[in-house]
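Onboarding guide, step 5: your first structure request.
Type a short instruction followed by the sequence, for example:

Predict the 3D structure of this protein.
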Amino acid sequence: MKIGVMCSGNGSNFENIVRTCRTDEVVLMIYNKKDCGAYKRASKLGISSCLIRSNDEAKIIREFMWAGVELIVLAGWMRIVTPHLIDAFPRRIINIHPSLLPKHKGLNVVQRALDAGDTVAGCTVHYVTEELDSGDIILQAEVPIIENDTVETLTRRIQLKEYCILPQAIDHVKHKV
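The system replies with structure tokens like these:
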């Protein structure tokens, strides 16, 4: 399966996808921040990449279609996508989110889990829909919140779980595409 990835950050989930999804091919990574780490990782890994403003979804769609992308993975894409992109790739866009959805949608979710006194956090891979972080859940993994956890320590443990479940979710989804 040909995979396209959209990134805004350092690209660790992007690199994990490239390294672990061996029967699939990441053919294009689109990023929206000029100096993001994802671009550097794509260059190092020999993956084609393209800098596109997040609000230029027509260009994003054209690039993914040109590359023959069958599945799009939002891996740290810190923008809400519009129905235009969703309609172009129906049920073929997935997202990794650092909480156990439907709890803690949106931003700053690790801090919000700590502030709420939650005993467990985690991550969710879900289909992208028009409603923020509300698409059907594909896979989740729990991470216990340990006494004296900080945003940084809990975020790191959640990221390690993301690295485990995202390739599994891609494998699950590809049988439905």
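Each response can be followed by summary notes, for example: The chain has a mean pLDDT of 96.
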